[in-house]
Amino acid sequence: MRDFHLPGRSTAYARGGMAATSHPAGAKAAVDLLEAGGNAVDAAIAGAVALGFCEPAMTGLGGDMFALVAREGTGAVVGVNGSGRAPAGADAARLRARGLTEIDEGAADGVVVPAAVAGFELLARDHGVKGLDAALQPAIRLAEEGVPTAPRAAFDWELAAGRLTGAARRHLTLDGRAPRPGDVMRYPGQAEVLRRIARDGARAFYEGEVAEDMVAGLSALGGAHTLDDFARCRADYVDPIAAPYRDHEIVELPPNGHGATALLLARILEHFDLAALDPLGPERAHLEIEAAKLAYAARDEAVADPEHMTVPVEELISAERADAFAARIDRERAMEVPRGLMGAPHRDTIYITVVDRDRTAVSLIYSIFSSFGSAICSEKFGINFNNRATGFVLTEGHPNELGPAKRPLHTIIPGLLRKEGRTVMPFGVMGGQYQPTGHARLLTNILDYGMDVQQAIDAPRLFHDGRLVEMERGYPAEVRPALEAMGHRTAERHVPLGGAQAILIDRDRGVLIGGSDPRKDGIALGF
Questions:
Q1: How far apart are CA 503 and CA 19, in angstroms?
Q2: Which of 90, 101, 144, 326 has the fewest CB atoms within 10 Å, i.e. the most exposed one?
């Protein structure tokens, strides 16, 4: 139990249903739909789409989504990949000929066809009970009537407002400036898009006037996108992947996401008695850093669009690989990064988890990648595009090389914790490249250190970004010098590492126990 003399927040408890996410309006939209008879899928869609207007730097209709859905009693987990593909005209050789070694995060070349809307439609059609129309109504209302800007959203907006030019500046600022806390933002163009989707389904987004607006905006900036690329966009069902940790099972989605990285990292850490170490001490931090270096190096070599991978995912997350990697860790000395850099540590995302009265659990993540994605908006409707194609590489012959209609390495990963075939906790950690490390940190906080859901989320974080170990301010003062003595280079982070939400299902008492990250504006809310 937390010390009530100190700042903090309590875990949330409920019996009927619960949602946890990064903005109160998103949590309320989800819970309202639950109370109106919707299930966890309906509620997750309602909350997620609403968050695109509460936190537009993090997500929106121009982004991608992934989801895990676990129904009580069936033992099965459904996986949905709603990530977009590069246009058919994408050509890595053309970019290399321009002298580029990586894709510009603010260029039209960095935009994949956004697949989130296709993913929401697939989920609502096959697993919801209220229909896509009902699930979109809260977001339509927020977009039309406006959302008062929350403090963390305002903080992120101010940091990234300089990226917004042209249509993006017109649609996503208040007369050219970032909104301050309490300033009301409205999105009439996107409200109209949602009304059309509610009436006619996802084809209203991928065909006709809305698609023409998006393609025109991208084409004007040199993008290879065509109306055919948008018309072909789809979301797919995928088989989740899993690996054991202690006496539980961690469930993730397969590539092109990097959930496999989280599983490999957890399997490496399982070789060490973390519970015997101080959870905020340098020894635990060192093991996490070293295990992450190895897991991310394997990811960078192998993870790509599954149709182009050369290393089977089963081999990537195997016990044998985890054994070999754990044996390479020196408990007293930092290793060099095994291969190349691991990418920038922070990208922007929202995550929502919902559990309903029937104990169906949804773990859903929805993102445009960088803050405001590509910072490119369509002219008429103000659709803010992702820059997810920056997840590709331009290295000729690499499995993750940019190519026509390929899906890039994707950082957003929803998670589930299970035990004996039953869902224990849907969870997610935002923060781009950090997410696999965040999954391992959250789960080890709970399973090795016995923290409750909120404590596990609140605890300070660190991440090795390929050059430095970036540390939040919550660590004791002696930890950084101790890590430096082991050979790590450390620095204090300006922006917190991601965010997280989770809902623990306590079947013995018939209650749900939720936590939401104080690094964001959100809450866990139930009834």
A1: 8
A2: 101
Residue 525 sits at the vertex; the CA angle it makes with 72 and 156, to the nearest 5 degrees, is: 115
Token duo for residue 306: 């599954």
Residue with tokens 């182009």: 308
Beta bridge partners of 184: 148
CA distance 17 to 29: 13
Sole residue written with tokens 């869902």:
423
Distance CA 159, CA 96 (A): 31
Helix (H, G, I), strand (E, B) or coil at 68: strand
Binning pLDDT at 50, 70 and 90, where does residue 339 land? low
> Which residue in 85, 151, 155 sits closest to 118, CA to CA?
85
At residue 349, the pLDDT reads 84
Global pTM reads 0.95
The residue count for the chain:
527
Residue 457 to residue 443: CA distance in whole angstroms: 10
Q: Six-digit token pair at 436? A: 């696999």
| CA-CA-CA-CA torsion sign (426, 429, 433, 439) | negative
Supply the mean pLDDT for the chain: 95
Residues 255-270, mean pLDDT to the nearest whole number: 97
